[in-house]
Design brief:
Layout lengths: L1 E5 L8 E5 L9 E11 L1 H8 L18 E8 L11 E4 L12 E5 L3 E3 L6 H5 L2 H14 L7 E4 L5 H12 L3 E6 L4 H6 L4 E4 L12 E6 L3 H7 L3 E9 L6 H7 L2 E4 L6 H12 L7 E6 L3 H10 L5 E5 L4
């Protein structure tokens, strides 16, 4: 099969589009013929070697941990998933990834694709969708009538977070560039702040929850906009516990694991018209270096999708 692999950590030049062996399908696995995958910042952070202490891979490594495709084979212990099923997944990040024509995934980590989405849209949903769900609902405990500030709301995670927060009945304040204000409003945001011209910390007060997808100065300034007892949830860097205590709020960090349960929830919302994945760019697998360059730029709207196989 064709795959993109890295044989050493480094810049985009280490990405190789090459022939690779077909993945072994274990007893608890399903072998998926990949129709589409997606690029996430964690992909190039792993490629650069930033996470090699936490995730000690045996190279060569096939990156990519968003996938939508068709089940080609099922392991001997698998039930509830059949050959020919249209599935999607955010697989175990410690295993070989989805920049390939085939991927082996634990059956417990896959769910039926949303009926109303094509493969590209479905592939854009798992990692970002699980991240937004865990951050807002599981960690943030966002409730109807509460207020939430969502940073970088036009991005892959932020755009889904806006929609999930509206579905929960929250008042949504979002940050985005001026060019994306109308887009973020169309997703359901009640207020959109152009972060380049309007310092959010001067315009936002007493929110119940801040969803930090940026880190650094943005995280530091976000403490001041929370009400007493509020929560800051970050997917970039663990919030400082002492800083949270001083502000009388909570700080939480999210690094997601696979969740077929959440994928089923996301599929239900997508099929009900309450969740719309955004695709900002599309590439063939052989153009992976361009896709990584775009992701590294931090200027993407929605998700970057890779077209790999044919339905």
């Amino acid at each position: 099969m064709k795959a993109v692999r890295i044989h050493a950590y480094g810049d985009r030049s280490v990405l190789r589009y090459e022939d690779a062996p077909l993945p072994e399908c274990g007893d608890d696995d399903v072998l998926i013929r990949v129709i589409a995958a997606a690029v996430n910042p964690v992909d190039w952070k792993i490629r650069e070697g930033y996470l090699k202490e936490m995730l000690p891979y045996k190279l060569p490594l096939t990156p990519g941990w968003d996938v939508a495709g068709i089940v080609e084979r099922v392991g001997s212990k698998v039930s509830g998933v059949a050959v020919g099923d249209r599935v999607y997944s955010r697989p175990d990040i410690s295993r070989q990834g989805s920049y390939a024509e085939y991927i082996a995934v634990r059956a417990s980590e896959v769910a039926a694709m949303p009926r109303t989405l094509g493969y590209a849209a479905a592939a854009s949903l798992p990692l970002a969708g699980i991240t937004a769900w865990e951050s807002l609902i599981d960690k943030g405990n966002l409730q109807a009538g509460q207020s939430v500030l969502i940073h970088a709301a036009a991005g892959g995670v932020g755009s889904l977070a806006v929609q999930l927060a509206k579905w929960r009945g929250a008042h949504v304040i979002a940050t985005a560039s001026a060019a994306n204000v109308a887009l973020v409003q169309s997703l359901g945001a009640d207020e959109v702040i152009d972060y380049r011209t309007m310092p959010f910390a001067e315009h936002v007060r007493d929110v119940d929850l801040v969803f930090d997808t940026v880190g650094g100065d943005v995280q530091e300034q976000s403490w001041s906009v929370l009400k007493a007892g509020g929560t800051l949830v970050s997917i970039v860097a663990p919030p400082d516990a002492a800083r949270a205590a001083a502000a009388g709020v909570q700080g939480k960090f999210v690094f997601i694991q696979p969740s077929a349960t959440i994928l089923r929830e996301l599929a239900t919302l997508a099929d009900a018209g309450q969740l719309r994945p955004l695709i900002g760019a599309e590439f063939g697998l052989e153009r992976i270096a361009e896709a990584h360059a775009l992701s590294e730029s931090g200027r993407t709207v929605g998700k970057i999708v890779l077209h790999i196989g044919k339905p």
